[in-house]
Structures are given as C-alpha cells and as structure tokens.
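INTERNAL AUDIT FORM
Audit reference: QA-55
Scope: verify that the stored structure record matches its stored sequence.
Auditor: D.O.
Record contents follow.
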Amino acid sequence: MGSVALGVLLAFLLALWGPPRPQAAGPPWLRGLGAGLGLGLALGGAALLVGGEGLGAALAVGGVGLALLWAWGADLLWGVRGPILRVALLAGLLGGGLGFALGGGGLAWVWAGVVGLLVAQARWMLALPEAWARLRLWRLEAWAVLLVLAGLVRVPVPLWPEGFPWLALAQMLLLCLAALAWGLRYAGVRVLGAGALVFALGLGVEVIGSRTGLPFGSYTYEGAPGPRLLGVPLIVPMGWFALGLSAHLLAGGRPGRAGLLLVAWDLGLEALMTAQGYWRWYDPHPLWYGAPLQNYLAWFGVGYSISWLYGRLLPGLREGFGWAYRLEALFLPVGLALMGFWPAALASGLAMNALAAWGGVRGR
C-alpha cells in the first residue's frame, strides 16, 4: 500500500500543474447527467468491492468524487475536457508507473488515474468565480444538496445488503426532505398541505389495498421491515409523496404522463421490494413478479390522482425536483441488475428513462 500511496501522491502533484485555458461552458443538463453517471460508477464499484475486487474501492471513491464535481460544474468542465483529460492521463501514467515500479501492482495505475482526474477537475473548478457562486447558491438550494445525499446513500447498499431497510428509509427520508425544501422555496407553505394530503392519500389507499385487495390486488405487508404506520411500511406513503411530486413535475403537470412514470417505477419496485420482504403477493393471476395487471392499472390511477391534486394545489410549477425521478431511473435498474433481476432491470430502466425523456420539461 505504501508504493500505491507514493504513486497517488505523485499523481496528485502532477494534476496541480498546468491549468487549462478558459472555454465556453456546455449545456446545463450535463450537471445532472454527470452526477448520475458518477453515482452509477460508485454503485458499481461498491458491488465489485463486495465481490472481493480491489478495483472496486477506487471506482467507488472516484465515482462519489466525480458525482460531486459534475453536479457542481460538469457544464463548466465540458469546454476544457481535452486539457483536463491530458493532465489527468499524464498524472495517472507517471504516478501509476511509480507505484507499479515500487511493487504496488496494477491497482497503482487505477488509483493514480482516479486521483489525477479528480484533482485536475477540482483545481479548475476552484479557479472559476462561477463555481464559487454556485457553492454559495447551493447553501440556498438545500433541496439539491439533500437530493445528492439521497443518491449517495444508495452507494453502500451492495456493501451492506442486510442494512437495506435502514438505507432505504434514509434515502426516502432525504427525498422527502428534498421535496419539502424544493416546495417551500418555489411554492411556499402550500407544499405542506399538498404533501400532507398526498401522504394521507397514499397511506389510505395502501391500508385499504392490503386489507381488501382493492384496488391493487391481493397482497399483504405482513412481516415487512419497519417502521410502519397502520401496518404499512412508512417508506410507501413517503414514496407516493416524493416520487409522485417528482413525476408530476417531470411530466409537466400532465396527470396521464405522471401516472405512466409511476407505473414504470413500479415495474422495478415489484421485483426489489418483494425480494426485500416489504410486501407479498397472493393474487391468483400474477403478471409481473407476483403482481397482477390490476396492480398497474391501479398505480396509473393513483399516480394520475396525485398529479391532479398537485396541479390544483401547486399550480404553475416547473420541473426542478424532477431530477429525483431521473436519479431513481438510474439507481433502481442498476440495483436490480446487481441482484440478478435482469428482466425487471431492463424493463424499468428502459421504461423510466424513455418516459422521463419524453415527458420532461426544462428544469428551473
């Protein structure tokens, strides 16, 4: 490890050399895309680490760093990607070469390359007044910080699979706080009443559904991880509130599109949440991982109703928090693939991302 550390140190020093020349910024959507790709890389690295691959640690650390950097200013870095990559490559080659020569093995190259890439970008960002202005703005945009944290919470799942209930609860709590912070900033205190009503609707329909089979079909929450409210896992009505708001905004306020977005989300949830013991299906006519066709019609109906309520109670809002759904469209399929649920991973990934691209509007 000492030889690897020396190589990394050299990569760090080399990446501080030669700042790139200023260039025009790229499109703003690169920030969201870059953050999602970085978090996906981190999640994949965590999965490799579980499998005993030493490469996983470097990818996990690098993915988290890249997600933060790219969420901060991927558009600002886009115009200078060539010079940054050259500096990072030089740092990785020389730093990794030193580590390899001292007996650090092939991982020396990986760690040196990761450090070179992170430092070269961070140095450039710290030299830009616009980047500093964004840091000050993020103090006000608390919802964006909470949304990034909700994504980062997903990274340790492969490392601590038995902790899934706690990580899922933490992620959903952060999503709900992000939704409230976004709503308070752009809609005022009205979001509290709208959120409470949607939460109550989501809870009510789940209490009735799990006890009567209507409207979703025959299922139960018996044995589900806690905490629970009226027998329903708390993250379920929290999900209706937060992801329902995100789908509504991503759909541009169109209830029909919002309902489809939530149905696409459930294509993945049925595989994940039944495997984790959150609910069990007993329907005699299953269509997808135990759930009947009736379930998806009901999801569309509830999603339509939630979007309709948000449209009446919080009119005139633009996207913004729609990024919560986009992040879910990244993490849920990746997580399902790591668990071996390839049909659910492909179906939810294609459906969620296609509908998000179709129904999205320019964020605020």
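Auditor finding: record pair retrieved intact. Strands lie at 219-220, 228-229, 232-233, 280-281.
Action required: none
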